[in-house]
Amino acid sequence: MRHYSGNICLKNKRIKSTPRTQISPVEFKERLCLEGMRDMSEFISGLDARMVLDSRGNPTVEVDCYVDGRLAGRAMVPSGASTGQHEALEMRDGDQSKWLGKGVDTAADNVRQSISEVLVGMPVDQQRLIDEAMIELDGTQNKSNLGANAMLGASLACLHAGAASHELPLWKYIGGVAGGQMPVPMLNILNGGAHAASNVDVQEFMVMPHG
Predict the structure, then answer these.
(1) Model confidence over 76-101: pLDDT tens digits?
(2) Of 30, 115, 144, 210, which residue is the least packed, with the fewest Cβ within 10 Å?
(3) Cβ-count burial of 209 within 10 angstroms (0-12 exposed, 13-18 middle, 19+ buried)?
């Protein structure tokens, strides 16, 4: 159980919560009202998800986030070519008669059902709370209950919607006061391992500016 503290609003009455109150994500969503949030934030009204094809022609999840009944954010989940056993689980249907077992209908259903039940009604610009609610709902280290592709799709769609709610480009919404600082780019120049038909053990050779 995750611990939350701060101001809680119940039936429009603001009360002070006790420190480290134990509540579930659903209870937290129903009671959530951070200082000034009702006046400043827009709220998630729905999530939708579907299967689309990525740049390799493989199925992946695309998620829509609705705010006050309008489409506000959309995101498609990337997929690694060489995911390891210790990485978060990318949920696939496993039905060999469809997309060679790579279908993502189950992950899309998780977005429309379980994840929607928790996120609908939450402030769209509270990204940390959105992500923590999904992590709590999944309850596993490798995201195997809901699927990392379902959770990431919902998270990114809400992120885009949050930026739109403040009429900011995504980079500025994420960067905040540090949004004017250019991150150091890392560029891939040579592939190996599972990314290439060669006997090179190193997966990626990358360059980055220095100095």
Answers:
(1) 998 766 666 778 889 999 999 999 99
(2) 210
(3) exposed
Q: Please give the backbone phi and psi of residue 159, each rounded to the nearest 5 degrees, phi first.
A: -65, -45
Q: If we measure between CA atoms, which residue out of 155, 166, 108 comes closest to residue 133?
A: 155
The CATH code for residues 43-174 is 3.30.390.10
Residues 6+ apart with CB under 8 A from 143: 88, 89, 151
User: Contact 137/115 with Cβ under 8 angstroms?
Assistant: yes
* Full-model pTM: 0.74
Residue extents of the structural domains in the chain: 1-40, 43-174, 181-211
pLDDT over 60 at 115, yes or no: yes
Stretch 185-190: mean pLDDT: 90
